[in-house]
């Protein structure tokens, strides 16, 4: 079922889109929206409303803190592409490289050394890209 224009006008969707853009960057969100088809457009709406418009928009944690928690969870679950995306997003959330290191150290203890090892590798690759290394 395609997302209708009314779905994009809900307050939660608009808030989610604003928060999503502030964390992931407008270019990333534009690419995701442009690539959406009738098949996955409902999923894009869901994550915009639920993840970004509900959870990330809550006042209880800062974007920095949410970023750290998100990275630890994604690393623990082995979601490599999402780890890379959220490492890049730290440029917008205020989470430092030291914060990321600490999160991944927690992953090593609570979720396993292999998961943390993979997350550190991904973060190093992303940092090299962000720093303009060849």
Question: In terms of topology, how is this protein built?
Answer:
Blueprint: H1 11-24, H2 26-35, H3 41-55, H4 63-77, H5 80-93, H6 97-110, H7 113-130
Helix pairs in contact: 1-2, 1-3, 4-5, 4-6, 5-7, 6-7
Walkthrough of the structure:
This protein is an all-alpha fold and 134 residues long. It folds into two domains: 1-58, no CATH class; 60-134, AhpD-like. The protein has seven helices and no strands. It has helices at residues 11-24, 26-35, 41-55, 63-77, 80-93, 97-110, 113-130. α1 (11-24) crosses α2 and α4 (63-77) packs antiparallel against α5. The longest helix has 18 residues, at 113-130. The chain is globular.
Summarize, please.
This protein is an all-alpha fold.
- Contiguous uncertain segments of 5+ residues: none
Identify the CATH architecture of the largest domain.
Up-down Bundle
- Name of the CATH first level of the largest domain: Mainly Alpha
How many beta-strand runs?
0
Count of domain modules: 2
Classify the beta-strand content into a percent band.
under 5%
Helix content: over 70%
């Amino acid at each position: 079922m395609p997302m209708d224009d009314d779905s994009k006008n809900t307050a939660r969707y608009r808030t989610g889109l604003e928060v999503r853009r502030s964390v992931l960057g407008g270019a990333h969100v534009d690419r995701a929206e442009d690539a959406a088809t009738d098949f996955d457009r409902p999923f894009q709406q869901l994550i915009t409303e639920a993840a970004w418009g509900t959870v990330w928009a809550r006042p209880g944690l800062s974007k920095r803190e949410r970023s750290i928690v998100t990275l630890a969870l994604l690393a623990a679950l082995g979601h490599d592409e999402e780890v890379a995306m959220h490492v890049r997003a730290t440029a917008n959330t205020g989470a430092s490289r030291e914060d990321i290191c600490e999160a991944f150290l927690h992953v090593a203890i609570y979720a396993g050394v292999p998961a943390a090892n993979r997350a550190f590798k991904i973060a190093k690759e992303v940092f090299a890209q962000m720093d303009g290394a060849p």
